[in-house]
Amino acid sequence: MKDLYILPDNLPVPEDDSACTHLEGSRVPAIALVTTNNRKVDLSSESGITVVYFYPMTGSPDSPPMIGWNEIPGARGCTPQTCAFRDHYAELKELGAIHVFGASSQPLAEQKATVERLHLPFELLNDSAFEFANALRLPTFEYEKLKLIKRLTLIINHGTILKVFYPVFPPNENAAEVIAWFKSNTI
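Predicted structure:
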């Protein structure tokens, strides 16, 4: 069985390709995304501060190894990133995050399995139709004929993007970076 919780040494570091420079200050689109609790969330109308981290796809302990995945800069680390947001969820809420979501284009059934397996206190958003990603022009990449959203994190206040973390590396430190941002910014 592979260990999805530990990042291997010598992962390639993703470079900033400026694919997210247009996002800060933008309004999020009025698009309802289905959650792992089968409800619809429109991030443009959520009140207060919302943290949304986008990840390519979480693996499953019983699935075969993803050949070449570790060689794609920024691809590996969805489970450690998600676990970090899980572990820091209470602190993010204390610092003012009203909502915390993970989001990906991964099939909803796989996202639901992730919530259960990792005991997440928050929902995952599904953008398998790429409506949200395309509307915001989020960066994507392809793996084995799958189109996936690159790893990034948005801090949204009343429908406006305040902060973008991109590229995110290492992914297991992303939640701590978001916490540091909260502590050094008044909203």
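Summary: The chain has one domain: 32-184.
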